[in-house]
Amino acid sequence: MRTYPLIWMMLLLSGLAFGQGQTREVSMCKAATLRINAASTGATRYEWYRNNEIIVGSYASELVVSEEGTYKAFGVNKDGCISDESIKIIVKHHKPTAVDDIATGKVNTNVLVDVLKNDQSVCAEFDASTLVVIQQPLKGAVTRVDGKFSFIPARDFAGEVTFTYQVSDKTGQQTNIANVKLDIVTNPLPVTLTHFDVTKLETAAEVTWGTSEESNSDHYDVERSQDLKNWKNIARVEAAFESRESREYVSVDSLPESGLNYYRLKMTDANATFTYSKIKSVHFPEFSWAELYPNPVNDMLHVVVRNKKVKNMRMISNSGIVRLSKPVAESSFTISMKEYPSGMYYIHFEQEDGTVKIFKLMHN
Q1: Percent helix, strand and coil across the chain, each rounded to 5?
Q2: Radius of gyration of the chain from Cα atoms?
Q3: How many helices (H) and strands (E) does the chain have?
Q4: Is the bond preceding residue 153 a cis peptide, omega within 30 degrees?
Q5: Where does the signal sequence lie (predicted)?
Q6: What angle do CA 41, 43, 49 make, to 5 degrees?
């Protein structure tokens, strides 16, 4: 019995970029369904497999799946000849993610930690009633209070402690076990902070803080880190110097990294002495490879490349002509579109491994 090639196509996944290989991985919500289509010249039916076991009764070119597993297909023609094996599609259910947290508190003062603020759930909201401490800290104790954790430190304790927790979403999907690090300090801050918060704004992070009193304060530096070791200064904000009134400050990080971003405030006085605020964190999913704006474009096209693995960019016209090809050496740059004819363009971003993501651009 001879075999013949199978042309494999997946529907509902046109927004994904794939590199070379014989396996594709797809994540979906537990309650959702995914349609997988196969097409092969001369095939009159198809044999579908899940985890190397044939799916009895499924012979059409389309398979609707909802369960996790590894799927593949063979085409069968009228003579009973079987095609080559298709690529394998690995289907996984989205799991909610508990993200590690870090917070700072004062000696003999309870610390309230809103762990759910940074946790990620794609398919359903978290069920705060399922928050549970997996391992208590060695010093002090943690209790659940209104969907948050309250750390009650041991008397006069100063230093670092950790505890772990887990939570489920409203479909019953459970997260990983996450760590919370608490730094209990004795030294007072040079200014009296009323709050220090970080909030996600789509693809940006808004850092806000407030003071009720400032004395000899010079400026604030907003710092960001992904590993709590290497900190980058991303903004400087002038302080009030002397103030007995409530003041509010805002700084926006327009280019956070994918994954976990830690933020802290460095508070410096006029004598160049400084201290740090407590640390807050936010988590961003994998960003789109790039942003192109405006789109449609008339003159200057602004390009922001978020994927650090991208090494090359090509701009191809609707007729297939490569109008521009250049290495990507900077995370943001501009392109003058005046020298190019109007029409539809396809912007190709390519990683070193050959994986390509394509964006449509209309040039008026």
Answers
A1: 0, 60, 40
A2: 27
A3: 0, 31
A4: no
A5: 1-19
A6: 120
pLDDT lower than 50: segments of the chain: 1-21
Residues present in the chain in total: 364
CA dist., res. 8 & res. 75, Å (int): 10
Dist. CA 335–CA 358, nearest whole Å? 17
Write down all domains in the chain, each with its CATH number in brackets.
23-93 (2.60.40.10), 101-185 (2.60.40.10), 192-284 (2.60.40.10), 290-363 (2.60.40.1930)
Amino acid at position 90, single letter: I
Closest among 90, 85, 35, 26 to 60, alpha carbons compared: 35
Asked if 258 contacts 229 with a C-beta cutoff of 8 angstroms, the reply is: no
Which pTM value belongs to this model?
A: 0.53
User: With left for phi above 0 and alpha for psi between -120 and 50, is residue 134 left, alpha or beta?
Assistant: alpha
Which pair of tokens denotes residue 235? 């903004």
Angle at 64 between CA 58 and CA 67, to 5 degrees: 100
Q: Which amino acid is at 318?
A: N
Answer whether 115's CB lies under 8 Å from 151's CB: no
Q: What percent of the chain has pLDDT over 70?
A: 93
At 122, is the secondary structure helix, strand, or coil?
coil
DSSP helix/strand/coil, 351:
strand
Rounded to whole angstroms, the Cα distance separating 194 from 247 reads 9
Q: Distance (Å, rounded) from C-alpha 99 to C-alpha 115?
A: 8
User: To which residue do tokens 């790039």 refer?
Assistant: 290
Residue 347's alpha-carbon distances to 194, 220, 274, 313, in angstroms, are 47, 40, 47, 7
51 vs 3: CA distance, rounded Å: 22
Edge-to-edge order in the sheet of strand 53-54: 23-28, 88-93, 69-77, 43-50, 53-54
Q: Long-range contacts made by residues 355-358, C-beta under 8 angstroms, separation at least 24? A: 355/17, 355/18, 355/19, 356/17, 357/17, 357/289, 357/290, 357/307, 358/17
pLDDT by residue (tens digit) across 142-186?
A: 999 999 999 999 999 999 999 999 999 998 899 999 999 998 877
